[in-house]
Amino acid sequence: MSAALIAQLVVIGFTFFMLLNSAAVLVLMERKVAAFIQQRLGPYRVGPWGTMQPLADIIKLMMKEELRPKSADAFLFYLAPILCATAAFAAFAVVPFGADTTFFGLLDEPVKLMAADVNVALLVIFAITSMGVYGIVLAGWASNSKYSLLGGLRSSAQMISYELSYGLSLAAVIMLAGSLSLREVVGAQAGYWHLFGVLPIPKWYVFLQPLGFFIFMTAGVAETNRAPFDFPEAEQELVAGYHTEYSSMTFALFFMAEYINMVTVSAVAVNLFLGGWHGPFLPEWLGWIWFLVKVFALLFFYIWMRWTLPRYRYDHLMEFGWKWLLPAATLNLLVTAGVVIWMGW
Q: Which residue range(s) make up the domain with 276?
C-alpha cells in the first residue's frame, strides 16, 4: 500500500472521527452559551468546568431502553435515523478543509485535506442533503403518532420551501467562480483586492454576494431545522416532533445528524463565501486553523440565534420563504449573471 493511499485513509478516518465528536462538542457549547445568555452556570458537575458532560450524556443514552410503539412499522422506524445519520456524514465527504499537504515533508506528493475530491462537489452536497428529509418524513410516518407525523410533514414542506432559495444562492457563487468544485471556488478567493489602491480586502465572495450569503445562511438554518425555523420539532407544539417516539441510540442518531448538518452547512458557507482556509498571518499549510475559526464563528451564530430569536409562526415561515427569500434569491442570481456578463468574468 502506497504512502499516499495510507495518508488519504488517515484523512478520511480523521474527518469521520472529528464529525463523530463534533456533536458532543456542540452540545456542550450550546449548553454553555445558553447558560451565559440566560445568566446561568450551565453544566459544571461532570469533569472540570463540566467538560465531561457530553460523555455522561452518551453513557446515559446507551443505557436507556430502546422503545418502539406497538403499531409502528419496525423496519422503517429503525431505517429513518440511519438514513438521517448516513446523509449527514456523506455530505461532508466532499468538503475540503485545508490546502494540500505533504504532512511536514513525509510524503513525496501532497494529498488533499478532504475525504473525496469531486469536481461537481456542490451538486453532490445539494443532492445528499436533500436526502436527509426522507429520514425525518419516514420517522414521522413509521412512528404511527400524530405528533411525529405532523413534524415529518412540516419538515418536508419546509425543505421544499427553502431548498429553492438555497440552490439559487449556490448558483450565484458558481457563476462567479466558474466551477462546481469547492476546491476551485476556494482557490478563486485567494489573494486580495486593494481598495483605493491601498487598503487590502480579501477576495472573499461575501463582499460580492452579501445578499447571497444571507440567503444561504437563512435557508441553511431552515434546512437543518434549527430555531427560529425548528417547526419539525417545536417542543411547545408537538412534544418533540418527528422523534417523539424514539429513545436511546436511535434518538441519539437524530441528535447527531442535526449537529453534523450544522457543521456541514457552516463548512460549505465558509468555502463558498468566506475564503475557505485562506486568511492573513498564517502560511497556507496552516490554513485549516482559519477554516476551523470561521466554522466555529458560524456555529456560534447558529446557537446564538436559538436562544435569542422567537420561533416563527408556521404561516409566516411559508410566507417568508416563498414571498421574500425566493424573490430575493432570484433577483440576486439575475444581477450576478448581468454583472458577470458585463465584466466578462
A: 64-343
